[in-house]
Amino acid sequence: MIWVLLAALAGGISVVLQAQSARAEGHPGHLGLLATLVRRPRYVAGLACMFVGFLSGAMALRHLPLFAVQAGRSSSLAVTAVLAVFLLRARLRGRDILAIAAVAVGLVAVTLASHGGRGHVHLFGLVRLAPLAAVLVLLALGQWASTRDWPFVGPFVGVAGGLAFTVIGLCLRGVGGARMLDLGEVLRDPLTWTIPVAGLVGLHLTTVALTKASVVSVTSAVIASETVAAALLGFALAGDRTRHGLGWLALTGVVLVLVGALDLARFSGDLEDAVVE
Question: Is residue 199 assigned to a domain?
């Protein structure tokens, strides 16, 4: 579980460092802001933390269920909230503190209920191309939805992006499940090809979603879809399981993390709005 906690910590630090950099720069144009920030050491450090979080999550997926790792990733919003108090002088309300407590208790519950073990995705032969096909379908669906004039198009595209990110975890669990990681075998595995494609599709769709709806609604949609889909895919395809008799505890933990993270998404949105202003 150390890798999960490291992933959450790195993710939380990343958000705060990037927010600090944006606040210090005060550039009015979004494209100009990004071009400027990539030259700032603090912003680059934030990107490095994102990469550390990704690698930590990948290591965790070699031995922990998808639902446990995803719960840990969602808890990074709690880290962001705590660090924002000290580094960005943000103020936590009672509701925020309760949400952080829910995430913490939920993560402990998930840890106690998780049954460790080497990952193994039950897909064979050409069927291992199914995750890649699913990602391409999500891309097409998200692109099509983004052209519709629906009131819920932002969250809908956000869900598609979250599902694409979930495929990354599934593929990492499958690729990392081998007893000995042979480079040639890994490179020939369709699951390996799917990882960068799913990452780009997920990033693209979430970016599109943010142009259609608020940060809070999109972030909530991504978190909810990732958390629920990770649990379902893990149990259905990756052989994930809980300790004997502790399925209820795992479910309770995931729900607590999900509810807390969804509420903290509002805090994250408020933090971003403050930075933009």
Answer: yes
